Amino acid sequence: MKINSICCLGAGYVGGPTMAMIAAKCPHITVTVCDMNQARIDAWNSDTLPVYEPGLKEIVEKSRGKNLHFTTDLKPSIAGADLIFVCVGTPTKSYGIGAGRAADLRYIESAARLIAEVSEGNKIIVEKSTIPVKTATAIQSIIAANNSSNATFQVLSNPEFLAEGTAVTDMENPDRILIGGEQTPEGREALEALVAVYENWVPRERIITTNLWSSELSKLVANAFLAQRISSINSISALCEATGADVDEVSRAIGTDSRIGPKFLKSSVGFGGSCFQKDLLNLVYLCESFNLHEPAAYWRSVVTMNDWQKSRFVEKIVRTLFNTVNGKRIAILGFAFKKDTNDTRESAAINICRDLIAENAQVVIYDPRVPFATIQRDLLEVGVSQQLIDSNVEIAADPYAAAKGAHALATLTEWDEFRDLDLPKIHELMLKPAFVFDGRAILPAEALAKHGFEAFIIGKG
Ligand code: UDX
User: Fold this and answer.
1) What is the model's pTM?
2) Ligand 1 atom 20: the closest Cα is on which residue?
3) What pairs with residue 122 in β-bridges?
């Protein structure tokens, strides 16, 4: 089975970049990315892509209009494809059974129904969306029940491990590609067809093949382990502050143990992003549904720790500012959940700003990539009223405008440009004492002290 034509349902953070990479590496394959959202498709077809990722524009422009197409015309794209990637959203359910924990699979379901409706011949369906275990089986049964023609389907699981901000390099040079398939002759044939696509640029030994459920579960477990490392080091950051230790020194000391390794040991205001919390909650839900209460509680504690890290940061600010931030200007540097992305999903900054606004602070936000509309939407979603947004939230054009007249300044995202701020200038612009709360430990501690700031740096005693 040779793949000549690929269709992708969902033009978001996963679908868009992944398909752009496949198109760039496989000029002989036609790749069509579909989405029902016309504005998003228009953006992919324009100079201003809907996703900001270093290097993404270049690879999109390389193939767009040649073997890479973006369209809202779903049906013909599905009908013409040998292989269909499902990259639709799987948000946490906000209603009914499993609300707040389980994944909402309605977009996956409608994708499966649409595929069944318009397909003929042999099709391979690849689930790439982050999903709970056994979604592939659900896709299979929806398709089997709705298959009106004599089309045949193979469902594969191919979880995405790219991290935002480094998506292009992650995809270009992945640690591994994971593909799960059914252990039948047809399943193995489909699996090899997808392996052949990736082999255009990924060495075969880095392509791991497993059964369907192992593949689906591995995605949840990978994210749970990564998030657990951050919660572990964040728990230690509080202890470092209490004891006078330095969390970065502890990270360096333990990270040189080759069994532990140096990555994902950077203490922060708490992890964000579309995956970690959602996948942890999915894992918890999965454990609970098999009556595995202790494993469920164990993984839930990773989320609890993360929530605590965010709220204790706000508490630290309020206590330090003489127990009140009422009417005080707090400059917020960074709103994205990490640097080099315009994505704010689950960003620690959202809860931190919400809680500061609840204390009646005036928050003045600067982020180099996140527009006001996004910040406003995020704050509305966590219950901040439009009235409070109008009265208590300001957007600044740069860090200096944010610092002007501020009682305190907090760094929440580790954007590189914050590492070399003109500290004397910031100090002069701020009210005195000039308080700094560095939630990412990116500012130079000695220079802050030298220039007269009262600085709190996460994890530093
Ligand atoms: C993550 C996984 O890394 C990726 O493999 C998966 O496909 C999707 O989820 P992503 O959410 O894009 O990727 O970013 P990641 O770099 O993992 O960062 C997640 C959060 O953890 C960010 O808020 C980041 O600032 C935070 N983080 C990361 C830390 O606080 N400390 C660290 O040491 C690393």
Assistant:
1) 0.93
2) 271
3) 152
